[in-house]
Amino acid sequence: MKALKTMATILGILLAAAVVIPLVVLAGLFVWLKLTEESDEEALELEQEGV
Fold first, then answer.
1. Is it the case that residue 45 has pLDDT exceeding 70?
2. Does the global pTM surpass 0.70?
3. Is residue 26 part of a domain?
């Protein structure tokens, strides 16, 4: 019975990791995109002023 409980716990942890890890990666990509988007806009503004 203890082995079954251990296997259920391990399965639960793996399932949680399979959901949480991709969400963390996507959140990191979203933040990176927002940060780089601001710098891209600043570069475009500088190019327009220089023309």
1. no
2. no
3. yes
